Automatic annotation (TrEMBL):
<dbReference type="GO" id="GO:0016787">
    <property type="term" value="F:hydrolase activity"/>
</dbReference>
<dbReference type="InterPro" id="IPR002925">
    <property type="entry name" value="Dienelactn_hydro"/>
</dbReference>
<feature type="signal peptide">
    <location>
        <begin position="1"/>
        <end position="32"/>
    </location>
</feature>
<keyword id="KW-0732">Signal</keyword>
<keyword id="KW-0378">Hydrolase</keyword>
<dbReference type="InterPro" id="IPR029058">
    <property type="entry name" value="AB_hydrolase_fold"/>
</dbReference>
<protein>
    <submittedName>
        <fullName>Acetyl esterase/lipase</fullName>
    </submittedName>
</protein>
<dbReference type="Pfam" id="PF01738">
    <property type="entry name" value="DLH"/>
</dbReference>
<dbReference type="InterPro" id="IPR050300">
    <property type="entry name" value="GDXG_lipolytic_enzyme"/>
</dbReference>
<feature type="domain" description="Dienelactone hydrolase">
    <location>
        <begin position="163"/>
        <end position="288"/>
    </location>
</feature>
Amino acid sequence: MKLFTEALKPARLGLAMASIAAGLALAAPAQAQNDKMTPIPVPAQPKAITLDTGPLPGATAPEAWHSQYGSVFARNVTVATLTPFLPDPAKATGAAVIVAPGGGFRTLSMENEGWDVAKALAARGVAAFVLKYRLNPTPQEMPAFEQSMREMFSGVARTAPRMDPQQAMAGIAPQIADARAAFALVRNRAGEWHVDADRVGMVGFSAGAMLTLATTLAGEDAKPAFIGLIYGPLASVTVPADAPPAFVALAADDPFFANSGFGLIESWKAAKRPVEFHLYEQGGHGFGMYPKETTSTGWFDAYARWLGMHGLLKRAH
């Protein structure tokens, strides 16, 4: 556990996170590429449940939200929450998924990689819970925030070293704690939410995929029953003997993670653990639930079929 809780050298972690954050520039559908970041009021989240991990140490800027690419994003999240999206009890399968949006640990794509994913899961009878995990602080004022993002887009991110997931995990201890708290909450309230405590999985996008992997490898009591890693890093990892079934999706033109090999897939196979891998010809980084003219748009249908293949779209007997 020491590897995952000690601070990673800031320069290396910063470059790695810059790679993920720069992916936000590629996350939009083609027609919305020029959308500017527009501040919006923090939306009401009446169903959000505050997790017990406390405020982010040292954070001073308040939580802020903005719209971009026809979607909404949160930043400066200092207190983690979990929002349930529950299916009709008559069609609930008992399976549940914790959804971790991406955004380079600087923002969260709450709609495209959070709420929309959760709604699609609930429509298939799977209880979904969107995790708004704590984030690294960014400048409070929007112009300064935009400038900080432009600086990352200016070339630093594209020259960043290839990310080693197990090293990068060392810098996200607060987020791993948030994920652990999310699993604990869902299992503690499993009866109320018509959830089978043994069938709680996790799906994450970009930085959220890294968090999903970290929760699997270093999350101690979290132990996801199944995981989805959507356009996250694919470097080799040490796979535990009881690693859960994994669904992995990536576009071959992803500028951050498509050119570093497929060590993660090979690691899962070498450990003789179930893994399904979809490499889409096109889609870039951050396609999520955006409608695009690429086959990557079909990732969710493939994921749902994979859930069905593992018996997660029907009630357990």
